[in-house]
Amino acid sequence: MSRFFHGDSSSESSSSDEEELYSEEEEEQSEEESEEDSEESSGSDDEKDAATGAKRFIKGESSDEESDTEDVRVVKSAKDKRLEEVEGTVKLIENAEKINDWAVISAGKYSSLAYGTDPCDGTEFDKLNRQVVKLMQSGSTPKIYVKAIADLEDFMNETIAKSKVSTKKMNATNARGLNAVKQRIRKNNKDYATQIEQYREDKTGFMESDEDEEAVTVERPSRPSQRLVLDDEAGDGEGFSTVGRGGKTLQYTPESILKHLRTIIESRGKKNTDRNEQIRVMEKLYEVATTPYQRIRVLLALISTRFDLTSGAASFMSQEQWKLSVDSSSYSYSLEFDGVFRQFCLHHIRAEHEFNTLLQVLESNPDYVVIENAEEWEDDEKPPTLQAGEKLKIPGSIVSFVERLDDELTRSLQHIDPHTAEYIERLADEGALYTKIVRGMLYLEKLAKDEKLQTPQESINRIIIRRLEHVYFKPSQVVTILEDNTWKTIPTSLNSRITPRGKADASALVHTLCTYLYQHSEGIIRARAMLCQIYFLALHDQYYRARDMMLMSHLQETINSFDINTQILFNRTLVQVGLCAFRAGLIYEAQNSLQEICGSGRQKELLAQGVMIQRYSQVSPEQERLERQRQLPFHMHINLELLECVYLTCSMLLEIPLLAQTGSSPDLKKRIISKTYRRMLEYHERQIFTGPPENTRDHVMQASKALAAGEWKKCSDFIHSIKIWDLMSHPEDIKKMLSEQIQEEGLRTYLFTYAPFYDTLSVSTLASMFELPERKVAAVVSKMISHEELAAALDQVNSAIIFRKGVELSRLQSLALTLSDKASGLIESNERTLEQRTQGTAGAFERSGQQGGRGGRTGGRGRGDSRGGRGGAGNRRGGQQFTGGALDSRQGGAVRA
User: Where is the composition biased (Gly residues) (predicted)?
Assistant: First the structure.
């Protein structure tokens, strides 16, 4: 029992009440233990300074009492213990100075790595500062600390001076430690400049002064438990009052605004900070503010704090929250907002209103400027005064507020169900946000005119690219309406030098913004501006301009070095260029542009329009979260069903003639233009029973079967019955273009399939079969002959096609050619494997095979390399041999037999 209670406290064991409870044996035992403890404590205390707090505590007692209480334990207060800790740390720093060991002194992470200590513990300088902060809570700054930091700064200056003169270089660890101390010591010593000067003037007198230091009461920031009295009667008319635990009332007046703002700003990011309480304080501070400077400072802090509320606690804001309206003259908190999301919504709406108010204050007071590179005003007792002819710079970032508002809008749109009316109502807020972007751009333009302000060009570029990203994917009619409504809400006294008022033409606006970014930016912003302009041109059916810009930019060569969001924009632009080529009737160009995206089977991921959930995926929850954050709002999506329909239709028009050509000529090497289409076609052929088409893919597969059989009208009907064409502009023109393409490719397929059975064939007969003009038929046949796709001659006098019979291959020769194809395929696969193991370009052969797609058709539509024939066929081996007419691979040799 005595051992247990003894460890608790020596003062309690020595009290008279407890002595009566103990037995004589227990008293003897406790005395022996106290003697041992006192010897150990006295032995450890001898190593320390004699003038510590513990010694002073015993000094006031008489000698008789000391002799009588030799066995009494020494009791130290918490303040004395902390002072001893400070003295011990100071000794370690002084020892490190003697051996010039800056790694131990430094305030960085280098010494912790070098000496194997915990990086969170810091080093001796950090440790000293933490100990002094705790000690200052119950008194003034200890003089030994002032002496230590003053001597450390002097020693640092001497070391730097010696290192510049000395030819011997300091080792890397010591140099890093010296740099770390250099960065921290001067900033730290500013707070104790007066005491350091007194110490340097009279070092001995400063340390020997035995004057009692008055206890300094440390003002602490308001705790979350404090409540605000928002009634007007609670204050004195000049401000409002805060009631703390002690019942004391704190007055908030215009003179104390800066001091309270400083307290709030310093508490940002700390735990157990009630941001709602801080927001209420700043709202009342804004009402109390009398000068423009005070209003600007309060608004900057208030908007930032509101964004802190929505940063991590809520992932999105529902449409119901955004329906709430805010009265510009009232800041009352209603009980209707009973949920966390409602409060976030309210704060975000007020942030938009307060940002608008901030711009109005800045526009009406041009002498006050909010700029990023301004120095912060340190004196909270008195506000700065304006000098004649100069402008007062206030640290802040208008661009950051604009970007945060834009990000919050995007985040809310990501999580609202796009198939409801709520999404449309929420999307209407984009107009108000666009107005704020334009207004912020006008303010930055105004600052850029003044050369003394040195406005960063990067800020203007950031806000212009935000404006461009709200415009590039919209039709020109929508952009025109958006611009008109925006300039109506902006005061007539404001105008833009980059995009003047009154010029609402969408094409001119996009061109102007992009040209400005080309001239004044570089890197990611310039690349995104170029992609936005290409997307806009492709959206408005300017294919050749979009294609030329894409090729001249060379972005396809460097896009892998950009961030993921820029890569997503590149994929979207590439897809839009392919759709534009399809609308222009350029089938090969469209298929070639869409091949990389649609052929991968990962359209959702590549276009940021959804997350593909795979069965055996190795995606971590963190990666999935980042993937979902990158998703685009629904109104920016490209219709994936339309994209697949266009891709499969283009692949059908290219692959069916190619299959017919390779099926009737076994001596040709196999090529594949679209593996995805071939795989779907083979799966469709394996089906025993195929019913009527139900979706887009079934329609295209049935049309492919009809086209291969020469039934071009049936193929055209299947394609026209796809309802997805109605989503494109001018659907009738699209269907007419597809009918012409199907007629032409049907003619080519028929000639490839049945050429071995004809000696001569009339052009007029072909024209009547496919309902084409004779001139068109003659042009198609001439092109096939010139590209060596068809062994024939065109008799223009008799308007007939004369087929040349080549040497008939025997069955053995056909099998020999097939064997050589398989051997060449094995050689190619071996070379690919070798390149992969030697870190070569594994996909070189595949890329070379895909160059040009419909090879050889260089005339007319500018289509790639040689397309077939015995002279210029590609090197790709095919899948199932698909012949026109019967759709059976086993009949490939029967045509020649």
Answer: 850-861
User: Per residue in 271-304, pLDDT tens?
Assistant: 777 777 888 888 888 888 888 888 888 888 888 8
DSSP-assigned letter for residue 240: -
Half-sphere exposure of 440 (CA within 13 A, CB side): 31
CB atoms within 10 A of CB 205: 10
Task: State what percent of residues in the chain have pLDDT above 70.
Answer: 71
Rama region for 130: left / alpha / beta (φ>0; ψ in -120 to 50; rest): alpha
Query: Tokens at residue 330, please?
Result: 């009232």
Q: Do 138 and 215 contact (CB within 8 A), yes or no?
A: yes
pLDDT in tens, 488-531: 988 888 888 898 887 768 999 999 999 999 999 988 999 999 99
Positive or negative torsion for Cα 181, 187, 191, 195? positive
241 bridge partner residues: 229, 251
Task: Give residue 20's identity as a one-letter amino acid code.
Answer: E
What single string gives the DSSP state of each residue in 381-450?
SS---PPTT--EEEE--HHHHHHHHHHHHHHHHHHS-TTSHHHHHHHTHHHHHHHHHHHHHHHHHHHHH-
Q: Which two tokens stand for residue 440?
A: 């912020």
Dump the DSSP string for 823-838. HHHHHHHHHHHHHHHT
Q: How many other CB atoms are found less than 10 A from the CB of residue 519? A: 8
Q: Residue 280: CB partners within 8 Å, gap ≥ 6? A: 228, 230, 333
Token pair, residue 525, equals: 């912003």
Indicate whether 58 pLDDT > 90. Answer: no
Are the CB atoms for 430 and 437 separated by under 8 Å? Answer: no
Question: Do residues 670 and 662 make contact, with C-beta atoms less than 8 angstroms apart?
Answer: yes
For residues 744 and 713, the answer to whether their CB atoms sit within 8 Å is no
| Residue 730 zone, left/alpha/beta (φ > 0; ψ -120 to 50; rest) | left
Nearest-angstrom CA–CA distance, 553 and 575? 17
Nearest to 369 by CA among 347, 353, 384: 384
- Residue 436 or residue 81, greater confidence: 436
Q: Write down the pTM of the prediction.
A: 0.64
H/E segment holding residue 567: helix 564-583
User: In whole angstroms, what is the distance from residue 731 CA to residue 723 CA?
Assistant: 10
Burial class (CB in 10 A: 0-12, 13-18, 19+), 785: middle
Cα 209 to Cα 191: distance, rounded to the nearest angstrom: 22
Six token digits for residue 613: 């959930």
Q: Where are the alpha helices (DSSP H) in 60-192?
A: 63-68, 78-98, 102-105, 110-115, 124-136, 143-165, 172-189
Per DSSP, the three-state class of 37 is helix
Structure tokens at 731: 């659907």
With H, G, I as helix, E, B as strand and everything else as coil, classify residue 170: coil
